[in-house]
Task: inverse folding
């Protein structure tokens, strides 16, 4: 049986059975709540080494000793006096009284700061378990926590854990079971005044924590911070790291991409033979094999390898704790444009997926700055657009010949494009904060988390299965129907010409003003559900118009594009337009949901599109005037 009841905090609790117990996981940001939640529920909440990843309550189911538990992962908060939307979500859920038991997750390396929240929750409910997490890190830093003493002082069960290695979780669930099935009677605790609580927290943690004198890892963190966040070295290192990531992505993806497309096309031919053998009518063979299957193969071959390399590399940096340092470096730039430095974090999330970046904007407290961050998130290319940019750079600017020089040049061009996107983000943020969204930038404190050694194997597996295959699945589910539409457009005749020719012809004069053509613009329009399918659609459309060539590699693709009138100027305009045009439909719907307004959603569509069109117009016409391209 499934039972559902809405509770404050924006979450409808869905129990499988009446006897299921509800467990809330609360705690300061970045202490490992979602890691514990994922380990117990086998779900995939976003984890990473920076505060503020979880922005809304999430729930998952787990069984322990034949009993069912519903776990609720709450956004991190420092206190129950909610200052931001996600703190409010956490507080409302705890105050609603629906959890049977609350687990307060603490960071063993800085217990004192965590104690404040623990004491506040304790005033709210006696059914509390304190989970002291990150014990492995504490050990490395010479911090020792006396768990028994802590339990005695707090009067609640205390469990130690290293959640990332799965240690202590079974003990935690044992305590949860005990507490859920023998709940403590409510006790009347007077509400402590905040200053008293601070002293109490200090006193408790001093009594329970002992420090070994030498502490090399803290001084190592400081040294590293001095290099990574200094005004002199911070920016060049950021650019070099980005260059390195793209270089690895481009060089690493080349060979598997070619292999995949060869394999998939070979399979396509076999499927076609089978269709013919079974006597399928020509239109059906064309529809399935040339329309749906081909588009799908292109999406898989072009997207899978770069994504399978880019995502793990990016996640490694995220888990290492580099992203907040990027935010720190870019803070001054964003602030001088009237926006919030935390926007750097949401911009980074946009690299994975713009919709995720938009949801992540909840970490920005001021509504004005949050809106600016949402409206400009699309200026960073998401993973659906990166492979397209990479293949165009390879085909038109570097040559598919390969070699170290070529791949470094490709990466440098990509970094240049991303720098352009970032510049546009800043320029548009400045424009918005001077016009429609006037205001003074608010100050914020962004905690720089300790550097953590990422778990290489786990990161690779997690980013391939959780992220790459998810994004690919979404793209593929759109690619097949889009392939079908383009095939139908290319094969249904009206008035002596195909529908595709009519549509492309209609758009052509307008598109040419901006250095594009009708087919390209049509592909961008049909690519609204997912950017990944734009290039496959362009290929399909050109192929259906002319002779059918076997497109086994980028050289063949380049000839196809050149045969259809492309020059490097066209490629440049397509790249710029890909960087700056309307967000995909998922991102648009997310912006509507987050901003609650169709007006701002329309602005989020119009702003990048207008910027892209202006830039393309300038590029195309400057080249035309100068007689180049
Ligand atoms: N060394 C170590 N790292 C851990 C442990 N538990 C979690 N982490 C890492 O700590 C970071 C933060 O973990 P999350 O689970 O995302 O933290 P959270 O409390 O959900 O964070 P927010 O949602 O931002 O409040 C991640 O990089 C984890 O891999 C642990 O026991 N040991
Ligand atoms: Mg979390």
Result:
């Amino acid at each position: 049986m499934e039972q559902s009841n809405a509770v404050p905090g924006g979450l409808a609790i869905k129990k499988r059975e009446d006897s299921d117990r509800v467990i809330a996981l609360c705690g300061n940001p970045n202490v490992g709540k979602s890691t514990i939640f994922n380990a117990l529920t086998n779900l995939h909440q976003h984890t990473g080494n920076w505060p503020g990843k979880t922005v809304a309550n999430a729930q998952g189911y787990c069984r322990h000793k034949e009993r069912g538990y519903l776990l609720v992962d709450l956004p991190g908060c420092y206190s129950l006096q909610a200052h931001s939307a996600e703190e409010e979500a956490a507080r409302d859920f705890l105050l609603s009284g629906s959890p049977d038991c609350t687990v307060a997750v603490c960071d063993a390396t800085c217990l004192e700061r965590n104690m404040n929240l623990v004491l506040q929750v304790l005033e709210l409910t006696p059914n509390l378990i304190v989970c002291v997490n990150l014990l492995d890190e504490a050990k490395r830093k010479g911090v020792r926590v006396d768990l028994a003493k802590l339990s005695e002082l707090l009067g609640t069960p205390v469990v130690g854990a290293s959640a990332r290695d799965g240690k202590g979780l079974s003990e935690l669930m044992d305590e949860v079971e005990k507490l859920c099935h023998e709940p403590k009677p409510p006790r009347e605790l007077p509400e402590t005044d905040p200053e008293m609580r601070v002293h109490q927290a200090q006193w408790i943690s001093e009594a329970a924590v002992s420090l070994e004198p030498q502490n090399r890892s803290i001084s190592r963190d400081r040294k590293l911070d001095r290099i990574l966040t200094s005004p002199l070295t911070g920016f060049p290192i950021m650019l070099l790291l980005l260059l390195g990531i793209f270089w690895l992505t481009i060089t690493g993806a080349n060979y598997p991409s070619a292999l995949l497309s060869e394999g998939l096309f070979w399979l396509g031919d076999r499927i076609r033979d089978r269709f013919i053998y079974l006597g399928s009518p020509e239109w059906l063979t064309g529809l399935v094999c040339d329309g749906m299957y081909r588009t799908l193969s292109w999406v898989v071959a072009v997207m899978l390898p770069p994504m399978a390399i880019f995502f793990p590399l990016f996640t490694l940096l995220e888990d290492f704790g580099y992203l907040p340092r990027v935010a720190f470096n870019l803070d001054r730039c964003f602030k001088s444009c009237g926006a919030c430095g935390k926007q750097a974090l949401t911009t980074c999330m946009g690299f994975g997926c713009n919709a995720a970046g938009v949801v992540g904007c909840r970490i920005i407290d001021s509504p004005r700055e949050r809106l600016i961050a949402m409206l400009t998130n699309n200026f960073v290319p998401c993973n659906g657009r990166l492979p397209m940019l990479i293949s165009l750079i390879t085909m038109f600017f570097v040559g598919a010949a390969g070699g170290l020089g070529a791949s470094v040049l490709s990466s440098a061009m990509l970094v240049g494009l991303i720098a352009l996107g970032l510049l546009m983000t800043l320029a548009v943020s400045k424009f918005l904060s001077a016009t429609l969204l006037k205001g003074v930038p608010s100050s914020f404190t962004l905690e720089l988390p300790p550097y953590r050694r990422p778990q290489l194997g786990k990161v690779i597996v997690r980013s391939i299965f959780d992220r790459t295959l998810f994004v690919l699945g979404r793209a593929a589910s759109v690619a097949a129907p889009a392939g079908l539409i383009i095939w139908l457009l290319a094969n249904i005749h009206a008035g002596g010409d195909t529908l595709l020719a009519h549509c492309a012809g209609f758009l052509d004069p307008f598109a040419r003003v901006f250095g594009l053509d009708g087919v390209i613009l049509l592909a961008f329009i049909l690519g609204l559900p997912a950017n990944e399918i734009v290039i496959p659609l362009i290929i399909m459309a050109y192929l259906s118009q002319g002779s059918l060539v076997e497109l086994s590699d980028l050289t063949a693709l380049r000839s196809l594009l050149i045969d259809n009138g492309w020059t490097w100027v066209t490629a440049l305009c397509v790249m710029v337009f890909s960087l700056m045009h309307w967000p995909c439909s998922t991102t648009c719907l997310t912006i509507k949901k987050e901003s609650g307004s169709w007006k701002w959603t329309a602005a989020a569509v119009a702003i990048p599109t207008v910027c892209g069109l202006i830039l393309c117009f300038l590029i195309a016409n400057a080249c035309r005037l100068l007689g180049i391209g």
